[in-house]
Amino acid sequence: MKKFIKLISAVLAVIVAFSCVNVFASAGSAGYIKTFDVANRNGHDKCCAVNIGVVDKNDILWMWGCNHSYQLGDGIQEECMTPVKIMEDVRSIVLEDNVCAAIKNDNSLWMWGNSRLNHWSEDDKAQKTPLKVMDNVKNIDIDWNNAAVIKTDGTLWVWGYNYNGLMANGNEDDDNYYEPTKIMDCVLSVEVESNHITAIKNDGSLWAWGNRFAYQEDYKGYIEEKAAFHPFKIMDNVMQASVGGDEDLILKKDGTLWKNLFNPEKIMDNVKQISKQEGSNTDVIAIVKKDDSLWCWGSNDFGWTGVGSYGFVEDGEIINSPTKILDNVAFVNLDVDCGAVKKDGSLWMWGLIGVTDVSGGMTVIGLNEEDFKDTFGESRAVPYPVEYKGFKVNLEYEKIMCTVSFELGGGTGTTKTLCAKGELLTPPDNPYRDGYYFAGWYKDSSCTKAWNFDTDKVNSDCTLYAKWLPKSTVTVIADPSRQNIIIDGEEVVLNTYILRDAQGFDVNFVKLRDVAYLLNKTKANFNVDWRNNAIRLDKRKEYTTQNGAELTVPTVVSAPTKTSITPVLTDGVTAPLEAFLLIDDNGGGHNYFKLRDIGKVAGFNVEWDSEKSCIVVTTTESYKE
Fold first, then answer.
1. pTM of the predicted model, to two decimals?
2. Domains parsed from the chain with CATH numbers
């Protein structure tokens, strides 16, 4: 009864104390947030317990809290209890105790702080302000020792400390690898822990490597407590996983929550998100159900479960069964302090958010030490969720996963993948059908409405249909040639291949990159690269993805070619262009296209000048049949 009265008094005190507190009072317009993350300090007593990062409605990153390793990215090694503006145009953030990462809207990755991940320097000096380290990044997860990124093409890359095989390269050394190494394709999400990494692919399969995982041939399965130096598949139909600590959690696509990887045991139904941290005596677990209610259980040290009571290491208090602590929750995030964003955009936190610096300065939540003690006592921890006034989320965070099925029409390839509702779909690997060319994905079974991977978003479960074209049986011989070509009145020489069919007819075929290189900065310029499992041709854009192979030809002199219809995504829509695949002496493949076909797709005119015996390209004129 006394504990209940004390709790009611504390709640009333919080209401009074927070009614006049706005932690963003000095942060200008940063009153509404899109996402946030928290991280704990790593054994530094001269610092508050946590640092917090918030991305507001204007995509501005604000940070405050612990700064012993320059985690705030402001270039000053001093903790700060007032939000500091760090970066603009930020989409997402990940904070670890000594290192931080942010992904901008242009998919560039920026990092700062001090850890084994400091491949930005040749020594152990910290990176004091955000530094760009990579482009084309979709997601990232980091630990003190390792980082893993998912690029926009779905590939997974890892770098850092190779403890127990975290680099997945087969090596059993404990070296540091500062250059990102590609691990696998078609990855949807990744989780990095101190001694293992797990990844979920687009098809819902869960993969893992590192300590605790090893394949035992004698038993035809996987056992724990050993290291795996290559990724292996654990199970299917997974939407989210949190592996490590005392209890492995697996959220399946049907909303069921399971524990234990190798002998799964069902916990509950109707779950849409999980979050977990390692507590002092057991894990702390939080889940958001499909009805938007938040439930917690596990170690209650420092009020981590948010149930309203304190437990400490010496007490060993454990909340054994799931307990509801909030309603209308969009997502939850656990660390040494715990946070949840409600559907109305308000941010609620509990746990060690009240620890002050040794000098008795301001707390992370904006109360001075005296006011905090009046409210929460000497514990310096908050045992139940309290609202941060001034925080609002102006958009829904909840990601509803949709299933996209692929009707292969007699071919073989990917049959299903997952995509968050309202997001763009990553093209799957091209399917194969003997005797046919793959000619793109379509919304209807009659293959009349093409799917645009640049603009069409997945809003529900749907099916895409593969279009096929019969293969040609013509045998051709390829001979390298140099062809005079006039582009907007200026004569240049283009390396081509003459493809001669059985009747002796010659046709010039060229590389896309060569044409993009020559037409750069004209009215018909276009960019071309390999992205999202396909050749991408983006019209009316400068050619910025040069690879050094422009205006060169394979070393092969004369050889039979493989005919193909190569899918080229032109402004997001698949354009099946006739091409010939040439294999050079080193085994490299080179696609060659008709110049007229490129003109038709990219939007420039191509003609033959019989008097000058040369090709004429006019970039100011549209293609004429």
1. 0.59
2. 1-30+270-394 (no CATH), 401-470 (2.60.40.4270), 477-618 (no CATH)
